[in-house]
Amino acid sequence: MPAPTDTLHSPRLPSLLTLPLGLIPARLNSAVLAQILNRMLKPELADGELDFLDHKVLRISVDDARLSYRLTLRQGRLEAARPGTADDVSIEGNTFEFLLLATRREDPDTLFFNRRLRLGGSTELGLYTKNLLDSIELESRAGPLLGVMNRATELLSRFGVQRG
Question: N or C: which end of the chain has fewer CB within 10 A?
C-alpha cells in the first residue's frame, strides 16, 4: 500500500490507545528510549557519529501518541535530558511516519521534504540528525522488534484512524 502524502491523511493511533501512554512520566520514557538506542546505536556511538548531540537536547514528539522524548549525549552515551533544559533540535510526527522511517518504507528525505516528519530548532543539528537517520541500518540490529514495527505499520495503514 503506498504511503499517504501528508499527515492530514495519514493513519493515527486511536485516542483510546494513547490515553494510558500519557500517564507515564516523560523522563522515564526518555530514559527507557535512551537505553534502547544506546544498544542499537552502539557502533555509531563508539565512532562518535552522535557527538553532535553532546550536551544538546533532541526532542522527539510522537504527536498522536502524546509522547515526547528528550535525549542528550553525555560521556558518549544517550540519556534522558534534565528537566528545564531547552530543546536544541526536535523531530515531530505521528506514529505512522516514525514507523515508516524505522522500517525503511520511506526514506528520511521524503518524510522531511513532504513535512510528514518535521524538524525544528537548530538547522545544523537538524541536518546532522536527518543524515544520521538516513545512514543507520536497523535491519541487522532490531531483530524481532523490526518485525513488530512492520506489523504495526501494516496494521495502521489498513485500520488507522484518519484525521480530518
Answer: C
Domains parsed from the chain with CATH numbers: 15-159 (3.30.1050.10)
Closest CA relative to residue 55, chosen from 26, 76, 32: 76
Q: pTM of the predicted model, to two decimals?
A: 0.80
Contact assessment for residue 146 and residue 139, using Cβ atoms and an 8 Å cutoff: yes
Based on C-alpha coordinates, what's the Rg of the chain? 15
- For the record, the C-alpha cell of 50 comes out as 552522535
Cell of 81: 535530558
Cβ-contact 7, 45 below 8 angstroms: no
Q: For 56-65, how does the pLDDT look when each residue is reduced to its tens digit (9 = 90+)?
A: 999 999 988 8
